[in-house]
Structure prediction request, 254 residues.
Amino acid sequence: MPTLEPINALLLILAGLAAGVINTFAGSGSLITLPLLMFMGLPPAIANGTNRIGVVVQNLVATGNFVRQKELQPKREWALIFPTLFGSLLGATLAVEIEEDFLNYFIGGLLVVMFFVILLKPSSWIKGKAGTMPTTKSRWINTILFFFIGIYGGFIQAGVGLFLLAGLVLGAGYDLVRANAVKVLMVLAFTLVAVAVFLKAGQIVWSYGLCLAAGNAAGAWIASKYASKIGAKNIRYILLAVVLFSGLKVLGLL
Prediction:
């Protein structure tokens, strides 16, 4: 593995800070941190595993804040969390077994696709539809829905927050405030499962992951404590630029 230089450590902390803020608001912060780890020389599979350390710490901090602010009651959410745990186990297992070249192209393609997803502002559409659309009340349909979201989250993580937010609001019928808090708890739970799989496979570099975690934790604390005072508009433009550049770079088009 490449040696972690001081400048790279600083970049990881700053990227983690930005990702922590973005992930706590909606999701897709890993679209910044995952390609950065790859640019620093980590193979795609190891970058994919290492990225989860920051995600765990970030969501642990954000969950704690949401619980203290009484915006989250973890015991009420396990019916939806359990399917994502099993999905994450399957997704992470697939990720550690997959060919490196395929994973590299998959990540590059995903980054380009997510650029257009973010450009279309799906989170705004979800907010506009909250409380206006019929929700899926079937327990089995929600179980299947969140199982597949868990597979995606276990496999790649990047962008999973948007899918969770859509599922919680449009599928389970949550209001936006509760959905955002529950999303953070769900990501924490299923990422712990994924970390165990990547750790067993030896696909985590702790020095890189802990630098990310320091930044992620700070970003999550800021966002969950001062969410109402932080505007996301400019962050979205920065995210778009980073995601498009990263996707084209990973695919070898730049």
Remarks:
- The mean pLDDT is 82.
- The chain has one domain: 6-250.
